[in-house]
Amino acid sequence: MAKETMISYLDAYLGKKIPDYELNLDWDTRNRTFEIAFRLYAENKQQIELDDVDGVASEEEIIEFEDAILLADPEKSTVDPEEYLAVISYEGKKGMKKAQLKAVVDYLREVIEEGQSDLLDFLADDSEDAVFELTWSDEEFKKRIRTNDETYLPYPKF
With the C-alpha atoms ordered 17, 21, 22, 23, is the resulting torsion angle positive or negative? Predict the structure, then answer.
């Protein structure tokens, strides 16, 4: 049996823990990052004109919102944290503690579920200054890490 790595654990646990949402796990070997991208969808029944972050207006019937978190090796990765909901560091080839990876997925599920609800509320709000955005709290994420498990899952060999 192959040794469990960060990517194999993430792939399996994401599928188990967040099966109802569209997710994409992308491993960038050159930049040593793992991106977990997700999409939220909501029906824009009233076809309200919405402006995205770039100021582009849309009246689409189905609203699609995409965001991502990134796991990055701080020694090898070059990232712009503004492009991600969260950027979480891991320890190079040593990898990341299994408890931390579990907490990433568990907390991401909460953020996605709350985000889906907030997106629906946003579309139902008819005020001009309503804003929709997701929030990742490092404090909340760290609360979910069970510190009793010190097992590391290594960075995968390719």
Answer: negative
